[in-house]
Amino acid sequence: MTAPRLLGPADHRRVPWRNGRGMTTEIAQAEDGNGGFLWRFSLAAVTEDGPFSAFPGIDRVIAVAEGEGMELTIDGAAPVAVPRAGPGLAFSGDATVGCTLSAGPVKAANLMVERGAGAGGLFALLPDGAWDGGGDAVIVHALAGTLAVRMADGTGFDVLAGGTALLGNGSVRVFAGVRDRGLCAAVRLIPSR
């Protein structure tokens, strides 16, 4: 596993949604060399019901990071609750997606991966929880408190609230204490990329 790259709020970038209805904060990404991205991890404030932006050719995973929750209607199917804990909800960026907030605004975590470049997973870590994961890129973002990260070789470090650790090529175990919350994501790329 490569040494962790620690990112703070000064490393984040706020960008408008493609549909113009809000803003997202890009936490980390890997560029594809053509002006796009292989993968992107971001947080977005969702303040009202409405459509999601389309991302053709992108596979998405979403989880509720803060707030009471939301439901998505994907390509006209029955609404699906977006998880507040555990694995995120995966869907195609090509889909027509509508959002209904459960009880006010939420902050949503998004992991997007270029279709054909690899696959990704997103996990919302609640207080007193743990996550085991690995991949070509591993992202650990602390929402509150301090997350303890332990690498396969036994070494470790902490990620403080608002901070992010970006690691490559390996496996980690992340622990949250009784007052800690965070987001963990992993991307596995197809070797030809």
Write up this protein.
- This protein has 193 residues and is an all-beta fold.
- The chain has two domains: 9-116, Jelly Rolls; 120-189, Jelly Rolls, CATH 2.60.120.
- It has no helices and 18 strands.
- It is globular, with a radius of gyration of 16 Å.
- The mean pLDDT is 92.
- This is HutD family protein.
How much helicity do the residues have? under 10%
Total count of helical runs of at least 4 residues:
0
Distance between the termini: 19 Å
Uncertain spans: none
- Overall number of structural domains: 2
Mean pLDDT: 92
Structural class: mainly beta
In CATH, what is the homologous superfamily of the largest domain? Jelly Rolls
Rg, Cα atoms, Å: 16 Å
**CATH class wording of the largest domain:** Mainly Beta
Q: Might you state the CATH topology name of the largest domain?
A: Jelly Rolls
Shape: globular
Instruction: Assess the beta-strand content as a share of residues.
Output: over 45%
Order of helical and strand elements: EEEEEEEEEEEEEEEEEE
CATH architecture identity of the largest domain: Sandwich
InterPro entries: RmlC-like_jellyroll (IPR014710), RmlC_Cupin_sf (IPR011051), Uncharacterised_HutD/Ves (IPR010282)
Pfam family, one: HutD
Protein name: HutD family protein
Organism: Azospirillum oleiclasticum
Core attributes:
single chain; Jelly Rolls; 8-stranded antiparallel beta sheet; mainly beta; 2 domains; 6-stranded antiparallel beta sheet; about 190 residues
Give the topology:
Elements: E1 5-7, E2 13-16, E3 23-31, E4 37-46, E5 50-51, E6 58-66, E7 70-74, E8 80-81, E9 86-87, E10 89-92, E11 97-101, E12 106-114, E13 118-125, E14 130-144, E15 146-151, E16 156-160, E17 164-176, E18 181-189
Antiparallel strand pairs: 1-17, 2-3, 3-4, 4-12, 5-11, 6-10, 6-12, 7-8, 7-11, 9-13, 13-18, 14-17, 14-18, 15-16, 15-17
